[in-house]
Design goal:
By secondary structure, the chain is mostly beta strands. It has a single domain, classed as Immunoglobulin-like, CATH 2.60.40. It is 6% helix and 56% strand. It has one helix and eight strands, in the order αββββββββ. A hairpin with a 6-residue loop joins β4 and β5. The protein starts with a helix and ends with a strand.
Length: 128
């Protein structure tokens, strides 16, 4: 049991997060309703928060700009091998450049624990 705990502190067998979206292409101002899929690891872990950032990449894909950020304080326990869904609602900002000429967007999601390595998920989207 102690070995499992230390492994999860380094990210091996820790809980994971996945942002599940209904589609990958959205219009400016469009609301989207998805969910975060949380999957427990090999031991019980205490969750601290879920952060989801909308990030824009430039034409070269090297420079990124934070467009918006959402944080869900989630002081909860996820048990080993448990599976949960956490609702996610977001409105695409009006006025952001469309996904054209190499401009790309992604939702960068981080699951933070009281102890251990963060779980990260990235989901690319298009804004039309």
């Amino acid at each position: 049991m102690l070995l499992r705990k230390y492994m999860s502190l380094f990210g091996v067998g820790s809980a994971k997060i996945d942002l599940v979206l209904p589609k990958t292409s959205f219009k400016q101002g469009e609301p989207l309703h998805g969910y975060f899929f949380l999957e427990g690891g090999i031991i019980e872990q205490k969750l601290k928060r879920v952060e989801c950032d909308l990030v824009m990449f430039d034409k070269n894909g090297k420079k990124e700009k934070l467009i918006d950020s959402t944080t869900v304080l989630q002081s909860d326990i996820i048990r080993a091998d448990e599976r949960n869904k956490l609702s996610f609602t977001y409105r695409i900002p009006v006025g952001v450049p469309r996904s054209q000429d190499g401009v790309r967007y992604l939702f960068k999601t981080k699951l933070t624990f009281d102890q251990g390595v963060e779980s990260v998920d990235e989901d690319f989207i298009s804004i039309v």
